[in-house]
Amino acid sequence: MTANENSLNWFEISVSDISRAKEFYEAIFDIEMYQENMMGMEMAYFPSEAGNGKASGALVQSENHKPSMDGAKIYLNGNPDLSNALSKIEAAGGQIVMPKTKISDEIGHMAFFIDTEGNNVALHSNN
Fold it and tell me: I need a surface site. Which of 50, 53, 113, 115 has the fewest CB within 10 A?
């Protein structure tokens, strides 16, 4: 890996109900997600800009994708202030398991939540 490559270039959040999960993430981030079936997997994509070198990902429903509270932790971008997304989680059907917590002045804040599919996901923001 060269110095200008990201260590993360794609992520997938496993879901058991793509419609419910898509509605949840659209609600907490005020976004629209494009959904399609690709290679037998139902996928809903987080907004991204092709070719910008930043990581992106999708919600994925397939027999190889099982929601879990264990395993790798992904931190979704909650900038400018993760409180905005965090304040919508419970109304959208999720559960906050760690409220907004300061990491440091340099790094910012983090929070953990459980989405509608049972995944334990994190948020990060500079403020």
Answer: 50
What is the gyration radius of the CA atoms in the chain, in angstroms?
Answer: 15
Question: Shortest CA distance to 119 belongs to which of 48, 17, 8, 2?
Answer: 17
Q: Cα 59–112–42 angle (5° rounding)? A: 5
- Specify the pTM: 0.86
Phi (first) and psi of residue 74, to 5 degrees: -110, 145
The answer to whether 57 and 31 have CB atoms below 8 angstroms apart is: no
Buried b (16+ CB within 10 A) or exposed e, 46-61: beeeeeeeeeebbbbb
